[in-house]
Amino acid sequence: RAKSDGRGNFRFFEKGMDAAMQHRRAIESGLKLGLTRDEFRLVFQPLMDLENNSISCMEALLRWEHSEMGFISPAEFIPVAEEIGFIVQLGEWVLRQACLAAATWPTDIRVAVNLSPVQFKSRRLMESVQQALDEACLPASRLELEITESVLLSDSDQTLETLHALRAMGIRISMDDFGTGYSSLSYLRAFPFDKIKIDRSFIEDVGSKDANFEIIKAVIALGRSLGMATTAEGVETEAQLDAVRAHGCDEFQGFLFSRPLPAKDALELITRLTPARAVEPRLTSNG
Ligand code: C2E
Ligand code: MG
Ligand code: MG
Ligand code: MG
Question: Residues in domain EAL (predicted)?
Answer without folding.
Answer: 24-274
